[in-house]
Structure to design on (122 residues):
């Protein structure tokens, strides 16, 4: 099991809202209202972004997946939070991680999405 990022917000996320926002953003929702996978296309392939089983979370293996999760989270009006309490988001078109007063920039959203899901090396 990899490092988990979870989507948090004040109001519970209903499956119908997840389906609506996912479709509007160009994501595909596969499965049922009890357990689903949210996937995004890059080229001719689909790649996992998050899973739903009463809550939304993801285990990214690339900057592309972090960017997609941050994009989906922003559209829901939610927060993307890591296991250690750090937050992820998009500010001024840049995907970033915020941990206390430290900010790490992944890069420009459009460039990360265009590059695709290149796996992180160990």
């Amino acid at each position: 099991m990899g490092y988990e990022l979870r989507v948090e917000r004040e109001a519970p996320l209903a499956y119908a809202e997840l389906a609506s926002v996912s479709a509007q953003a160009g994501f595909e929702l596969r499965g049922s209202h009890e357990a689903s996978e949210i996937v995004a296309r890059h080229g001719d392939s689909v790649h996992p972004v998050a899973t739903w089983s009463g809550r939304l979370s993801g285990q990214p293996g690339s900057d592309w997946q972090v960017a997609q999760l941050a994009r989906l989270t922003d559209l829901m009006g939610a927060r993307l939070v890591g296991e250690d309490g750090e937050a992820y988001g998009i500010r001024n078109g840049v995907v970033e991680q915020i941990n206390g007063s430290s900010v790490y920039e992944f890069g420009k959203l459009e460039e990360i999405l265009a590059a695709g899901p290149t796996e992180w090396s160990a």
